[in-house]
Amino acid sequence: MDKFYEIMGEFYSSDVKKHASPTKRLIQQKDAAFRHKEFLSRKIHSTQEYQLTYVASPNKTYVIEPKGGEIDYDMAFKNPLKFYDNVMN
């Protein structure tokens, strides 16, 4: 446990600023996700049926449309080698 406090002490004594309120930060992130997804649905035309939206911060959102659509994760349990081939190729 001492190592944990040593590392955290180094982190917070450095130039990295912690958030004034982690709860407020989470609320900002949630609100940004709602606003960004609403904006994207009106302004961006999807080229695929399946897409992932990542809200990296209250100011940045990324839309990713995986080539070939959604990954079949059930295949990972049924046939791991085939799953790996599909995902990696």
What this model shows, in words?
- The structure is a single chain.
- The chain has 89 residues and is of the alpha+beta class.
- The chain has one domain.
- Helix content is 54%, strand content 12%.
- It is built from four helices and two strands.
- A two-stranded antiparallel ribbon has the order 1-2.
- A hairpin with a 2-residue loop joins strand 1 (52-57) and strand 2 (60-64).
- 0% of the residues are buried.
How do the strands line up in the largest sheet?
Answer: 1-2
Taking the alpha carbons of the first and last residues, their distance comes to 43 Å
Shape: flat
Please state the average pLDDT score: 78
* Number of DSSP-assigned strands: 2
Low-confidence runs of at least 5 consecutive residues: none
Proportion of residues in helical segments: 40-55%
Number of DSSP helical runs: 4
Largest pleated sheet: 2 strands, antiparallel
Features:
89 residues, alpha+beta, two-stranded antiparallel ribbon
Write a short abstract of this structure.
This protein is α+β, with helices and mostly antiparallel strands. Helices cover 54% and strands 12% of the residues.
